Amino acid sequence: MRKWLLAIGVALGLGALAQGGKLEIFSWWAGDEGPALEALIRLYKQKYPGVEVINATVTGGAGVNAKAVLKTRMLGGNPPDTFQVHAGQELIGTWVVADRMEDLTPLFRQEGWLQAFPKGLLDLISYRGGIWSVPVNIHRSNVMWYLPAKLKEWGVAPPKTWAEFLATCQTLKAKGLQAPLALGENWTQQHLWESVALGLLGPEGWSNLWNGKLKFTDPKAVAVWETFGKVLDCANKDAAGLSWQQAVDRVVQGQAAFNIMGDWAAGYMSTTLKLKPGADFAWAPSPGTQGVFMMLSDSFGLPKGAKNRQ
Questions:
Q1: Minimal CA–CA distance to 103: which of 112, 117, 92?
Q2: Bridge partners for 127 per DSSP
Q3: Which domains occur in the chain, in start order?
Q4: SUPFAM superfamilies recorded for this chain (predicted)?
């Protein structure tokens, strides 16, 4: 866990800063994730006691608010020393193509990371011969969370397909559960759509949807949207006003049966809510995605013009 923060330091050339200097880390790791980040910063300062670490966090799940602040800073010529970004087009399609980032390929060669990272992840952070960010984790996004005791009480099992999910939804509604699926703000709904698409199209179909081999007007792709609409009918109507944690709370409190969220939800339930994994709460692949690991990764890049580049 501590290695990611040290990797950020290496990315910024902090060997030269061992006796002093500053490092601003811009992220959305606040709230429930804040204490963990602060603990890692303390570990970092044990290695580099002369460096002042500026923990510049902007609250908001998936960086919804942080990205708006970052855009203002980047366009205003005041970039942070490093910032959190999801690996892939979220960085490459924005700040890399705009020539606002430094190529980190020399760093990867120096540290031996070309051999350490999976090829698929390296491909995700590469563009036109350069490598543009340092991944610090690999999350699984296609996870369905539930409470075993509540499912037993309601007489249902975790659905394995989206057709089963919709049938289970109707069963639970008939038992008085108005919103069997707990959903949060907009980005969590996009997150849900990805699981629906993967579950219906499969890994190859999912890839083809983005490489142009499968058109969005294809009946298979249209069916994804039709199913997604039916899944939304199983969710709470106040989703836009809830954080992802509050959506998880609905499941924990027995107000909903299921929540589709990444594996970081386990940390929230086990650490913040003090629930026991596998007993108080449990999980399964989101419907239709058994045997598939839908990955996302947080990474950090080095903007051109960072004040503490040295």
A1: 92
A2: 130
A3: 3-138+297-301 (3.40.190.10), 142-293 (3.40.190.10)
A4: Periplasmic binding protein-like II
* Secondary structure letter of residue 123 according to DSSP: H
Show Cβ contacts of residue 282 under 8 Å, excluding neighbours closer than 6 positions: 145, 146, 147, 148, 158
Tell me the C-alpha distance between 76 and 72, whole Å. 6
pLDDT grade, residue 25 (50/70/90)?
Answer: very high
CA distances (Å), origin 40, targets 36, 43, 196 = 6, 5, 35
Please check whether residue 87 is in contact with residue 301, taking contact to mean a CB–CB distance below 8 angstroms: no
Higher pLDDT, 96 or 32: 96
Listed in sequence order, the DSSP H helices in 29-136 are: 34-47, 64-75, 89-91, 105-111, 113-116, 119-124
For range 212-234, the mean pLDDT: 98
Output DSSP code: residue 133.
-
